[in-house]
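### Sample
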Amino acid sequence: MKLSRYFESSLFRQDFTASLVVFLVALPLCVGVAVASGVPAEIGLITGIVGGIVTGLLPGSSLQVSGPAAGLTVLVYEAVQEFGLPVLGVIVLATGLLQLVMGALRWGRWFRAISVAVVEGMLAGIGLVLIAGQLYSMAGAKAPETGIDKITGLPELLADSVGSSGARASLLLGAGTIAVLVLWKHLPAKVRVVPGPLAAVALAVAVSLGFSLPVAEVEVQGLVDSVQPPGLGEFGELGSLALLSTILAFTLIASAESLFSAAAVDRLHDGPRTHYDKELMAQGVGNTICGILGALPMTAVIVRSAANVQAGARTKASRVMHGVWLLLFAALLPAALGIIPIPALAGVLVHAGFKLIPLQGLRTLWREHRSEAVILVVTALAIVAINMFEGVLIGLALAVAKTAWEASHVRLEIIDKGAGPVQAHLTGNATFLRLPKILDSLESLPQDRPVELDLSQVHHLDHACRTALENWAERHSDTDTEPVKVTARA
């Protein structure tokens, strides 16, 4: 479509309106994610701008919107605390380059093969840590370092907040923000034209200013001052094993979240489907630029993407324009950020954290696929108890072990007619996982009778099973009986 025809068509009006809706949804989330990650608020806006204007122009998915995501907040905060803010740019840059390589190698489609239980468990674990951490921000207190300490320290936090007027006001403001977000969907449609996160933060600002509440507010540095490209010295940290594992965690989580979001967005509209490899490269370009600018990592964000589709967006122009609105706001009205109460942003992220926990899906999964539900829960708890990267690895290992166990279906049928040789028919996939059961059955056969072992229906026989069966046949043949007769698959 020619540009002039686009502006004359109804497509422009639909995309223009959708871009404003997405901008209003993205603004408080960009700021909130940045503050929760322990970085200046403007850095979150920079990532949102790059996600809109740069990634929004690239091929891959037409309607999903990228920017800083609540799902990476915990990991970013830990990285900033451990390595420092300047090194964050190196991590994000390396993440983007890895995504570009994976997209070029056409690995994007393989992310769809990752167990859904692991991904949902990962998001649930992130949600739990995010909720616990932001409850401390709501009370104006410093959160403990580990996920377990964050959760176990909540009763003490509540007790301390009740006895402090400042903490009590801060906690109530955050709780009120959550209440607005929860109740917003029940209000009349005319009211819900304003996005819930924006309305909740705006009301919190009005209450804070109107009652002069003693609560912390966002610190403003200015957009240009917040751009801090990593220096050459920071790249020397790439020799650290801890930093490399953090980069792998960023890459895995950002890529998986983006591509799973793309699959979800595709179900919301009838337009062009996502090209997963191109989308992965688009995310890689965006993260590479964010790394050069020293900004937060980006992913495709389902909240903004769904808002984009529901607002009637038809082309990628809506997400590009939303990035333009973010740029204009950050450039022309940066002081407006300074009146936003931090407890309100914490309340927005607590609400976002709850949405990351698939409570309804977990109940269904428990009824229909109990082992998948166990993987989900174990992954989430491992992230809370240990850390993000190792928790995801534990979940992936469990998913692989479950698949291997289910794939190793084997059946051993014993036919004993009372006279003549005992016939043993093995069928299916014989792997080391089922070896103890196979050997128990074979070793229980009479030692004084010849045995015929039929392996002709075995589809796969791994080395461990083959060796163990050969050793069993040799032992059985040493008991003054006829040697075990083995019929192998042709």
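Residues 9-401 form one domain. This sample (SulP family inorganic anion transporter) is used throughout the tutorial notebook.
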